Task: structure prediction
Amino acid sequence: MSTALALMLLADGRFPAGGHAHSAGVEAAVADGRVVDEQTLECFVEGRLRTYGLSEASMAAASVRRLAGCVSSAQWRASLAELDGEADARILAQPLRAASRRLGRQLVRAAARCWPDSLLAEAVDQRADGLHQPVALGAVAVVVGADAHEVALLSLHHGATTPCQAGIRLLGLDPFGVAAVVARLATNIEALAEWAVAAAEGPLFDLPAGTGPLLEIAAVEHHGWNSRLFVT
Result:
């Protein structure tokens, strides 16, 4: 399979990586009235892209740069461990940290079935609870031949479409209108991808660490709900 087709498959919401079970904070935002329509959904997604989205895209791009240069299994595993530690330090809320690992684990397992490779097999075995999602995405990108810019765009694409699709399910929004929201965010996504790739060229500890205190507080509260539609 070509790299382009692999990226299309990874970008498809039907790829069994578990993203459909997550709202990226939209469910909590709908419950407390921060997201009520297309306009407020667009503002929410744009803000999330500039904080968590940029951090995740930068980590994914940095993962590609470092893992692509590994020349041995031992170096691959050591790089995965270092990258995963940096990703862990950037996720403050425990529910979000656990969700990131679950998503990373499912992504690598699904990818290992699509593109059997010893490197992905090692990524599956790296941690029982899974690598963080952006690190896992970087590992998969290396195996399918994608570069840092492509994986940054892919990460940001998911950062936009996951909450937008959740908005449709939670609020019954017009799918055409929500698709237009994602389209309007394209310029921002392109700019953030460039930023992420540039950051990935530097030291790991200098990677963006954008956060949203309200998102984190809401994630902890959401985790304690007795009934919810999404995991996050």
In short: Residues 53 and 159 are 6 Å apart (CA to CA). The two ends are 33 Å apart (CA to CA).
